[in-house]
C-alpha cells in the first residue's frame, strides 16, 4: 500500500510545547482521521505536512517527494481546507477563482461551477458574508477544482451545526468513490471519525500514540474492569491507564488479546469507544 504522506522522526519545538519524534504514514486511497485533544499538536503537524512550518528535525515526504526540490509539484496536488480567512474576505468567489485558477495546471472551470452549484454557494457575494459552513464549502470547492489528490482538512466540522456536519462528512465520503484520492482531517469530534475514517492517527501531548486502521483500533483497545487484587506490577503492564476505586479498577488496554490471556474471565472486557480512548489517554501517564 502506498503512502501519500510520510513523516519520519519529525520534531518541532516551541516554548512550552514540542511535537516529538513523529512517525506518521498516511495511506493512499483512504480517509485518515487525526484525533487529539486541544493543543495536542494537530495543527502543528498539519502545517509541517503543508510546509507552512519547517520541522526542526526529521523528514517530510508528500507523494514520495520532498519540499526542498518539489514544492510546486506537491502543492499542485494538495487541497487544504479550513474555515479561516483563506481568501481576501472582501472578495467574492468569482474574483477568487480568477486569482487562484492560473496558479494550478489542472484547474477545471466546469468542475468549479459544478461544485458551486452543488454547494449552493453565491458567486457574487463577498466571502465575509459567508457562514462558517459556507466558507468551508468554498474552500473545498477550490481544492476539488484543481483535482487535488490529497485533501487535508483542519477541524472541518468544528462549529458546524449537526445537519451541516453530516452533509460535509457525506460529501467527503462521496469524494472517496473516485479511487485514489486521500483525505486527512483533524478533529476532536469522535463521532465524525466513527462515521468516515478508515485509519485513525492519535496524537497526545505532541506524541503520536498510534496510527492504525479502525479495525485494528477496535481489536486492540478495550476497557477492562476487575477487582483491585488482580493488579500488581506485572499485570498492570497490560494497561495504558488505570482508574482505581474502592469497588475495583477500570482500565484501558491497547493489547486486548494479552489481557484475555493474562486475566481470562476474571475481568470484564468491553469495547472502548474513541471517546473512551481519548479520555483515558488524556488522564494518563503512560504505564507499561
Ligand atoms: N507558532 C507557535 N509558537 C509558539 N507556540 C505554538 C505555535 N504554534 C502552536 N503553538 C503551541 O503548540 C501547542 C499545540 O498547538 P496545535 O495548534 O498544534 O494544537 P491542536 O492539536 O491543533 O489543538 P486544537 O485542537 O486546540 O486546535 C499549543 O500549546 C500552542 O500554543
Automatic annotation (TrEMBL):
<dbReference type="InterPro" id="IPR027417">
    <property type="entry name" value="P-loop_NTPase"/>
</dbReference>
<dbReference type="Pfam" id="PF00005">
    <property type="entry name" value="ABC_tran"/>
</dbReference>
<feature type="domain" description="ABC transporter">
    <location>
        <begin position="5"/>
        <end position="230"/>
    </location>
</feature>
<keyword id="KW-0067">ATP-binding</keyword>
<dbReference type="InterPro" id="IPR051782">
    <property type="entry name" value="ABC_Transporter_VariousFunc"/>
</dbReference>
<dbReference type="InterPro" id="IPR017871">
    <property type="entry name" value="ABC_transporter-like_CS"/>
</dbReference>
<keyword id="KW-0813">Transport</keyword>
<dbReference type="GO" id="GO:0016887">
    <property type="term" value="F:ATP hydrolysis activity"/>
</dbReference>
<keyword id="KW-0547">Nucleotide-binding</keyword>
<protein>
    <submittedName>
        <fullName>ABC transporter ATP-binding protein</fullName>
    </submittedName>
</protein>
<dbReference type="InterPro" id="IPR003439">
    <property type="entry name" value="ABC_transporter-like_ATP-bd"/>
</dbReference>
<dbReference type="InterPro" id="IPR003593">
    <property type="entry name" value="AAA+_ATPase"/>
</dbReference>
<dbReference type="GO" id="GO:0005524">
    <property type="term" value="F:ATP binding"/>
</dbReference>
